[in-house]
Design goal:
With 141 residues, the protein is of the alpha+beta class. The chain has a single domain, classed as Nucleoside Triphosphate Pyrophosphohydrolase (Alpha-Beta Complex), CATH 3.90.79.10. Helices cover 25% and strands 34% of the residues. A hairpin with a 4-residue loop joins strand 5 and strand 6. The longest helix has 15 residues. The termini are far apart.
Length: 141
């Protein structure tokens, strides 16, 4: 059965216990999507998950990182790019499992980076905006 592109993506904003760092993936230089850039883990929401994006979040985090999401909060839905892709942003504060050193299904490196650094230095505008929104959210907790 062919997968249908729902034009929606779930983004996992996995925050460490200090609330100062977030997990990012470093895309390969050869990647067709955002080559060489730091991005947040996540992936496309499948047609069966449209009404329940939390299911997509759980699936993507398990596939990419081998983690089970224990606590997550929907932060926002934003429109990205010319095609108007909807990004469902979730802040994950509790999970079960060990953070791997790479994305399990692609091999890209995974590491913690400062939210402040992303806000200031990311070359990707959407990453800056998401980092700014994440920082505002964490300040209000």
């Amino acid at each position: 059965m062919e997968k249908v592109d729902t034009n929606q993506t779930v983004i996992a904003l996995i925050v460490d216990h200090t609330r100062e760092n977030v997990l990012v993936e470093k895309r390969a230089e050869s990647s067709s999507f955002m080559p060489g850039e730091e991005i947040f883990p996540g992936g496309k929401i499948e047609a069966t998950e449209i009404a329940r994006p939390f299911l997509a979040l759980q699936r993507e985090v398990l596939e990419e990182l081998g983690l089970r999401v224990e606590q997550a909060k929907h932060l926002n839905t934003v429109i990205y790019g010319e095609g108007g892709r909807l990004l469902q942003l979730f802040v994950i504060s509790q999970w079960q499992g060990e953070i791997p050193s790479q994305i399990l299904d692609q091999g890209n490196p995974v590491y913690w980076t400062s939210i402040q650094q992303l806000k200031e230095k990311s070359s990707v505008l959407s990453m800056k905006k998401i980092a700014q929104e994440l920082a505002r959210h964490l300040q209000n907790l």
